[in-house]
Amino acid sequence: MDFEPFQYMRFAKRLEYADGIFMAGSGMNRPGRDLIAWKESDLRLDSLCSNYGDPRNIAWLAEKYGTGGEHVVLCAGSSEANFLVYMAALNAGDKVIVESPGYPQFRSLASLVNAEVVDLPRRPENGFLPDINEFKALLDENVRLVVLTNLHNPSMAHMPIELMRQIVDAAGANGTLVLVDEVYIDHLRPGEGDYTTFDLGDNVVVTSSLTKVYGLSGLRFGWAIGPARLLAGMLDLIDIVDPELPTIAQNMAHRALENLSRLRPVARRLHEQNWPIVKEWADSRPDIDYFEPPGGITLWLRVKGIDETGNLATVARNDYGVLVVPGEYFQSPGWLRVGYKIEPNSVRDGLTRLGKAIDDFKTH
Ligand SMILES: Cc1ncc(COP(=O)(O)O)c(C=O)c1O
What we know:
2 domains, Aspartate Aminotransferase, domain 1
């Protein structure tokens, strides 16, 4: 079968175990045991869990999104949720509008179903927000799906609700489904822009998980919230690939959901602690343009005068011991994504090393 491999994921998996100061990650570190309060009984394989996931978790999510259980599907992370949405929504030859720069999974998924990717630019000069007229001009009868992230990976830009509403309405008038991956939205403080696009139309499906903000990637606990008809198709697919969801992970996720309000501020505190250090460094370098994120643990920056950053990232890693993500993985040569979830002294050290790597790269 021909498809576009998800090269960034291969890179990320390898880098996680490489030597050097790790500034390549976009997900939080695992939370301490005390924050989640696991119980021995969570480790039982025969505990309460229906084949489509723990009913307590479905009920918790239904309540959070103010909807019914028929609008909730549990799956292995937002990655699988995104996969299932594409598979249920698209046929070969359909068009899918995908934001750019953007998370490359959305391109690989299109290639799996032989759908055509149409780029929706999110430009730095526009604060990485899409232009609504440009978006409308891309719509035609073959566009079956629009894919966005909010917060935006890689910039972490927040989409204002009014702009999102215009996108959803225009897509709806065209008979087009909108997928919004909201896996980063809880980096915002509660009530400060953390709306869900699910509320904006019945042509919307949103995906998320306990990975990025909560550091629980290992649980592989994700979900999709969307129109019941689409989700019914996703459940048909789940029958083919997932006879059951991992019981222990469902139990632990239940515990995490119960304690989510204690877990959520951890990522926010980390951003507020480390961002001033990152900003000071970025402001001190006239050769860097960057986007100031409203939250999150990553910085998206452009190195002026460098058109490709793949080699720069290699120099940074091999010669200066700091690991960052080259923009090439996000269709953006010349850019870097730099994570700052590590402790403050390591952030300073890592950025100093990155600065030296940039200087070295520019002079040789
Ligand atoms: C936009 C986006 N969605 C999904 C994922 C993967 O998340 P999960 O662990 O929930 O599958 C990532 C990881 O980088 C991401 O950036």
